[in-house]
Amino acid sequence: MAPDIQRQLVVFDFDWSMADQDTDRWIFEVLAPDIRRKMKLLKDDIQWTDLVAQSLEELHCRGKTREDIENTLRIMPFHPAMVRAISNLKNASSPITTFFCLSNANSVFISTILESKGLIDVFEEIITNPASFEPSGLLKLRRRIDPTGPQHLCKVGCSPNMCKGEELEAFLARHQPAYDRVIYVGDGANDFCPILRMRSQDMVLCRRFRGLERRIAQEGEKEGLKCEVRYWAGAWEVEEVFGKLST
């Protein structure tokens, strides 16, 4: 650990970054595979968050309950090494580490899983698409950015429901003074925008064989990526890196 690091921020994407699956797809693969197939066919025609919301309504109409959804989330793959990595870094005496979750999943999916792993209180903020269960048991999901209101101005390729780069900058503005180091753990193409906002002393932990790795290789130099890039495939490797970020 560098001696001048007193405060650091760890930013986590959720699907395939913190967790070892994609929540939006997992729910339907387990509870209604035919709906999952329909989503695969419609994903180029309907905005993804809207498609998940529509699919959750269909799931509800079939009689699937809140308990069905929550139990399915609790058994979703989530590596014990990732639980250890996060818990140990949070509990380390130095530096002070803040955790921030920035995800295109939704608040119910993420909070249910984090609660089941004992990690919900670790995160300073969870920025994602809002969702809540209605009394009927329907999980109602909507975009973080309302499609009828002002839209984000991202030119890097973020999805319409959220610009992760803008959300990261807003978080940093809310939590002054500046962190000495920011570590971003991500995997998807939409994680490229936020890492472009990071500095030379910051680090991205990029999961291998997914969209973020491809974008870094194809666009990183052209877009002026400044932060250090480290690659990982399994959660044990994140635990290994995190073990060197504290004393």
TrEMBL record:
Keywords, comma-separated and alphabetical: Hydrolase, Magnesium, Metal-binding
UniProt keyword annotation of Cell membrane present: no
Gene3D superfamilies to which the protein is assigned, alphabetical: HAD superfamily/HAD-like
Cofactor or coenzyme needed: Mg(2+)
Magnesium recorded as keyword: yes
Database matches in InterPro entries: HAD-like_sf, HAD_hydro_PyrdxlP_Pase-like, HAD_sf, Pase_PHOSPHO-typ
A Pfam short name: Put_Phosphatase
Molecular functions (GO terms): metal ion binding; phosphatase activity
Protein name per Swiss-Prot or TrEMBL: Phosphatase phospho-type
Organism per entry: Pisolithus microcarpus 441
